[in-house]
Amino acid sequence: xxPAIQRRSFISPPRRNSRSGRERLRLLRGGSRGPLHTLVxxxxxxxxxxxxxxxxxxxxxPFSLLHQRSHACQPSQETTVDARILQDNDKDGQPPxxxxxxxxxxxxxxxxxxxxxxxxxxxxxxxINDYDREVQAVADCDERTFRAPTAAGSPERLLSVCVPRTMxxxxxxxxxxxxxxxxxxxxxxxDKMRECGxxxxxxxxxxxxxxxxxxxxxxxAALGYKVIGFEAMLRNVYATTRSAHLPANSFEGSAIPDIxxxxxxxxxxxxxxVVASNPRNTLDGHTLCGASNTSHVLERANLTRRHxxxxxxxxxxxxxxxxxxxxxxxxxxxxxVLRGAREVLKRVKYVxxxxxxxxxxxxxxxxxxxxxxxxxxxxxxxxxxxxxxxxRTVFRRxxxxxxxxxxxxxxxxxxx
Length: 416
Known about the structure:
Blueprint: H1 45-56, H2 69-72, E1 79-80, H3 97-100, E2 106-107, H4 109-137, E3 141-147, E4 158-164, H5 169-176, H6 183-196, E5 205-209, H7 215-222, E6 226-230, H8 234-244, E7 259-262, E8 265-266, E9 272-278, E10 281-288, H9 295-300, E11 304-312, H10 314-317, E12 325-328, H11 334-339, H12 342-345, E13 350-355, H13 357-362, H14 367-376, E14 379-383, H15 391-397, E15 402-408
Parallel strand pairs: 5-6, 5-12, 6-7, 8-11, 12-13
Antiparallel strand pairs: 1-2, 3-4, 9-10, 9-11, 13-15, 14-15
């Protein structure tokens, strides 16, 4: 039986972890459209503060409290502070010397909770400052009108996109195009979503990992499907938000419905990382973690550090969601994202993503490992543009981008 349509759905954090005793919290059930829903305020700082407080205290990771107050009532217990809580990285990606001993320090539950809360507050203050600064970089934009990928015979649907006035390859391409952009890929994704059901069907969720300026997220949301996005670069979060709330995109006076953008990077573990981009391609963010976050690495790759970002696991963020389709555009971090999404991938019908031997190898992975992962997960993958070629042949022939469409042969939905 088809579930009831939920126009205002929500994201639920991970299931109860019996080992840590963290309580499962449903974030803002019945709220406006989710905990970090496109940051709708005209001045977005307040929304970001509240959203981050709610989410980061609920989801396991570097800023969630290690113990509930019930644990704090047991003074005989001691715990080692999770190093992630105190990961106040310096600009070279390493913990400052004054924190190295703290990582090993034995603290009581109450002290651990206070340390976690202090780290959370510091992170929130830094995030708001980062957001305000990054917004200024893309505050001005040009409104461009495109045709949404409607089905054959359907009325034409126009979509307005806020194109930032900054040096960026995607922005420059959007300004040049007249009416359509990446039409084959956009139409293919829209057609796959229609296989799921009609717009508004609660089963038909599109997950966009690496939203960038929001082209795919906005197009699918404009068709009426629910969209959940993850974007590490705050400039892109803001640009997508502005597009969603342009008057031309309104539905009965409201912004594009059912679109949520989470300002986090997806990965295979929880950690604080850095977002960097090339000065000539400012909105093409690269998430650098650990040793890759050093000054000499940034200089060698001609990348400029923009701001810090929190990584999350898709298995946790999408614990109660069964996406019909997922799109990845994560600049070579595909395997890291997918390793943190093993459970949710079992419930995804289609995955569309870019892949590049060069970018994968920069992140320490290979195309062969990526293809082996898909095979082990029960997916059948093929090149989107060269459908009759074997993917291994494509990767041997091309070091740069290839569009890949993967189909889950073992697909099992939460809704069936």
